[in-house]
Write a structure and sequence with these properties.
Distance between the termini: 36 Å
CATH superfamily of one domain: Winged helix-like DNA-binding domain superfamily/Winged helix DNA-binding domain
Helix content: 40-55%
CATH topology of one domain: Arc Repressor Mutant, subunit A
Largest sheet: 2 strands, antiparallel
Order of helices and strands: HHHEEHHHH
Number of strands: 2
Number of helices: 7
Low-confidence stretches: none
Shape: globular
Amino acid sequence: MKARQEAWTLHLPQTAEYGLRALAHLATQDPAVAVSARTLARETGVPVHYLSKVMRRMVTAGLVRASKGHGGGFCLARAPAEIALGDVLAAGEPSAASPNRCAFGWGTCDARHPCPLHGAWSELKESAQAWARSSTLADVLAYAARHRGRAPSRADALAQLGKRRR
């Protein structure tokens, strides 16, 4: 009997996902013009109260600059090619970056004290970390440019997000 393979997806912590959305959007904007929190929330589908928490983390990590007052908002602190997705993920969810976090939920594990999934989980984690270190916001922009017109509209994508969250 053939084993049934089901589609699965990698789930990111909410704050990390929202950080990726926000910075990917900022990467598409004129770096000389700050994007207001309200506009950024609307364009990314991130609730504005949650966005402020996310953006504080991004500012603290040196990925984003914030300006206050009339005309204030957020812009990237560096060029998109200089911001690795791994930096955004680490800033969004620092606890997820724990090097010995156990996939079984046993606290920590390592090669000397492995859980049953340690070997396979370590390979997956190392592959994902290598991808995150080598992929930048510029790569996101290049992908979007190559696939422009084939992706759903922003409104369609936000509608899909709303359905997933219900």
